[in-house]
Amino acid sequence: MRSRRFWILICLVAASLGLSACGKEAHPTVADADNDGVLVDAGDVTYQLQISRELNQYSVEDSQYLKGLPAGTPQPAPDQLWYGVFLWAKNQTNSPLPVADRFDIIDTQGNVYTPIDVNPALNPYAWRPMDLLPSGTEPALNTTMSEGPTQGGLLLFKLNDAVYSDRPLVLRIHPQSGESATISLDL
User: Fold this and answer.
1) Residue 39: strand pairing partners
2) What domain range is 92 assigned to?
3) 133-164, pLDDT tens digit by residue?
4) How many angstroms separate the CA atoms of 148 and 130, rounded?
5) Residues 6+ apart with CB under 8 A from 101
6) How many domains does the chain have?
7) How far apart, in Å, are the Cα atoms of 48 and each of 17, 89, 181?
8) What are the pLDDT digits (tens) for 30-72?
9) Total-model pTM
10) Is there a domain that residue 58 lies in?
11) Closest alpha carbon to 95 in 14, 153, 177, 30
């Protein structure tokens, strides 16, 4: 009798595990969301994610990040959102080096999003392609970017709101030379 109860219990557990997977689609895991202060090297420049988050165009702070959009850039559709990625970079070599000027975000479905070119002359938070001197950082010390609430240069994306179902998101940094790097993004 005891043996029969044991086998019934085992069968129930196995059946419940099998049923719990019904209707779920496997998504490839490209990264996890453990990105707090992680430093990555893309080429010979070191990068750090300061913060990444959805931006609210109606908030006083976030509206500042949306200045300098190209003329004619439409607002997000009802199924889209603004998303800001704020990066810090440092040249750890003894020679001047360019920071990356190509980035993209990839979700678990393989959708690729590229940043919107924000005019740095109109937006003091915008990421700027530049050469960093040895030990130089972007953002440079004592600038709006470095002293602001995000302490990083802005990469602005327009994402489909389906990314909430297709996370984690991964930021891919493409240096001008050398190996690319990735950072997991919270959303």
Assistant:
1) 48
2) 28-185
3) 999 999 988 888 888 888 999 999 999 999 99
4) 20
5) 129, 176
6) 1
7) 40, 6, 11
8) 344 445 578 999 999 999 999 999 999 999 999 999 999 999 9
9) 0.79
10) yes
11) 177
Peptide bond into 168 cis (omega under 30): yes
Find the CATH number of the domain harbouring 132: 2.60.40.1240
CA distance 82 to 59: 12
Task: Tell me, yes or no, whether 2 lies in a domain.
Answer: no
Q: What is the CA radius of gyration of the chain?
A: 22
E strands in the chain: 39-42, 45-55, 80-91, 97-98, 102-106, 112-113, 131-132, 137-138, 153-160, 169-174, 181-185
Tokens of 43: 């080429």
pLDDT confidence of 4, banded at 50, 70, 90? low
By C-alpha distance, which of 152, 167, 77, 157 is closest to 118? 157
- The answer as to whether 20 is a domain residue is no
